[in-house]
Specification:
This protein is mainly alpha-helical. The protein contains six helices and three strands. Strands 1-2-3 form a three-stranded antiparallel beta sheet, with no helix packed on it. The protein starts with 13 loop residues before the first helix and ends with a strand. The mean pLDDT is about 95.
Length: about 160
Amino acid sequence: MFVYGDTPSFVRDPFFTRSVSARVVETLRSPEYQKTVRADPHFARYRAFFETAKKNLKSLVDAGVPYGFGTDTGPPGRFPGYFEQWELELMTDSGLTPMQAIVAATGSAARFLGAKDLGTLEPGRWADLIVVDRDPLRDIKNARAIHDVYIAGNRVR
């Protein structure tokens, strides 16, 4: 949450702003709101904790520890859709390859949840997928170039 101690860069990102109200953007830009965030007695330590977490993720993955994906979307200050995209980016910023981040968000996440028919594209599986216009393996931000969305094999966008 330390990102809200100042105006987060994503409040200028059209991929973010198209999915939230103008009031949310106004709040995130508000000096009063930012001051409240910075008033947390541990605020100054959070960025270092975050950097350590990124290093730990890379070390654990390199050591072969199973890992998955799961942003804390839902609590206040976390935004469904955008934060999942951001988590993919943060995973690659941590040193994971785009493929490792995508697998974490799909097959690995399904395995951690015990979902036997989700997470991979295979015959007989539940066909939820996002079709993108650009290759996310070249740049994970290309996962934002959403062309189509399918749920249970049905196009919804």
